[in-house]
Amino acid sequence: MTALAATAGCVSSGSSSEPAAETATPTETATSTETPESTPESLDDWLDDANGYDGEPRRLGPQTRPTVMVGEEMDGGLAFDPPVIEVPPGTLVRWDWTGHGGQQNVVALDGPFDSGRTNAQPGTGYRYFFEETGEYRYVSEPHRDDGMKGAIIVKEPPSSGNTKVDEWLAAASNFDGTIVDRTDTDTATVTAGAEGNGGKFAFDPPAVEISTETTVRWEWTGHGGPHNVVSKGDGPLGSELVVEEGSSYEHTFEETGTYLYSCKPHKGLGMRGAIVVE
Ligand SMILES: [Cu+2]
């Protein structure tokens, strides 16, 4: 019993920043088995029962004005749509009430934002400007126990060091700042319809570096609907819009430069790619 009491005393003094925690009487110590330091729940765990969340945040690039719908029917319950977005610091996020599901509000768990009293009016809006990086969990209070939860993840976009590539791919969920080096091959392959951007809406790898005279070959997975490969602006790329698995499109790059492209139907979702020719 003495040993146990000593241990409990240690724990309680360790969790306090005050040095004077040794004054607990034996009776107090013996009964103070309350609240072991609970480890904070991870964002993924907390979002486990969030309606409409597939486990992948929707990543949005700089200069976007994201809107989250408040009160969409998803997974058979009420949801924020999209439930989880990832944005750079300095993003104004707007919430729009659909009018579905009755009274709603938008309340951050740890306080930074709060839309105030609940409201059922479609067209109600709330905005918050996110300056600081962090994970902001929020709920609609009347529906929090039914899975109406969301999160805004504010973080610096991935950086490869190539500004054109970084800006273009900031919205591509599968871009982590890596430009895959394929400068040693004559033919580099990129998959169209790879996992990413909330479905099979990605190019993989999203960014590739090649040498001049290299052919890039895009191969279709057959997933995610019709995709194409189209240069941003006046670039050389322009494939058909195709669906079939095994379809391909090729281009041989003769000149150095940074070539940005997207799939037109899914550009807004982040289906974008870049070829850097050195
Ligand atoms: Cu596409």
From TrEMBL:
Cofactor: how and how many bound: The crystal structure with reduced Cu(1+) has also been determined.
Gene Ontology cellular component terms for the protein in this record: membrane
InterPro entries for this protein: BlueCu_1 (IPR000923), Cupredoxin (IPR008972), Halocyanin (IPR017533), Plastocyanin (IPR002387)
Key words, A-Z: Copper, Electron transport, Membrane, Metal-binding, Transport
Keyword Metal-binding: yes
Cellular localisation: Membrane
PANTHER family membership: PLASTOCYANIN MAJOR ISOFORM, CHLOROPLASTIC-RELATED (PTHR34192:SF10)
Main location per the UniProt record: membrane
The keyword Membrane is annotated on this UniProt entry: yes
UniProt cross-references to CDD domains, sorted A to Z: Halocyanin (cd04220)
Superkingdom of source: Archaea
UniProt protein name: Halocyanin-like protein
Low complexity: bias regions: 12-41
Names of required cofactors: Cu(2+)
Location of the region described as Disordered in the Swiss-Prot/TrEMBL record: 1-66
Domain Blue (type 1) copper: 74-155, 194-278
GO molecular function: copper ion binding; electron transfer activity
Binding site for Cu cation: 227, 263, 266, 271
